[in-house]
Amino acid sequence: MSNMQTDINEKMRGILLDWLIDVHLKFKLLPETLFITVNVIDRYLSLVDIHRTKLQLVGVAALFIACKYEEVYSVPHIKDLVYVCDKAYTKEEILSMEGQIIEKLDFNLISVSPLRFLDYYTKQIKMDEKNYMLCRYLIEMTLIELKMAKYKPSMIACASIYLVHKIRKNSQPWNEAQMQKNTLYCEQEIRPCAKDLCTLLQTIDKRSTFKSLQRKFSLSQYCENPHNKYKNNSLL
Asked: How far apart are CA 203 and CA 184, in angstroms?
């Protein structure tokens, strides 16, 4: 966590994001909305010291902001946000926190997520939906694991593709001629990130803050639930 915080820690952040993944799924929001939400939360927490009792309020207000920025048809009503918080906060408190966050971020809500890069790269290599969803699972894990924030979004996207190719036993997990041309990364550059991603995948069952993500990717629209299948494999 940011040195700014005196009352919340990384585990509390993980619990918040685990809950937000459930809320995001419940409201059937766009994938990018989740990434914007997390980006807004982390940037705000790097600037403002908050009490743990207000952490969920920051989270739901950030989700509301992200919905207004990204969604066209699925912006949740404020009363629904009050409900999902189990009425821990009022409508006025959520709207007030929304204003505080936007003001503190100076109205700068633009961010580039790994998902944007993943969508571009996978279109270039014509990746099928099943493998794409496995990449999605991997990059959404990085939202919760704070240590992955040290990597650039483009690097995380590349590492997810590389790891999926390793999982599928692709003879060329990183086709230099094709992938380096599209991503500007060579295999040697992405391996450290892919290794951290692999460790995360193989230890996910031991982490309580990943339960919502596991449930989400168990659903049929996400093609498969990969965490049990690959947790013991030596991939890298």
From this structure: 30
Tell me: pLDDT of 233 over 60.
no
pTM of the model: 0.92
Kindly state the DSSP code that residue 232 receives in the 8-state scheme: T
Give me the domains of the chain, ranges plus CATH numbers: 10-105 (1.10.472.10), 114-222 (1.10.472.10)
Q: Quick one: which of 57, 125, 159 has its CA closest to 150?
A: 159
> Where is mean pLDDT largest: 126-135, 170-179, 221-230?
126-135
Contact call for residues 199 and 164 (beta carbons, < 8 A): no
Q: Kindly report the number of other CB atoms within 10 A of residue 23's CB atom.
A: 20
Location of structure tokens 């820690």: 9
Q: C-alpha distances in angstroms, 35 versus 71, 193, 199?
A: 13, 19, 22
At 181 the pLDDT is 83
At 229, the pLDDT band (50, 70, 90 cuts) reads low
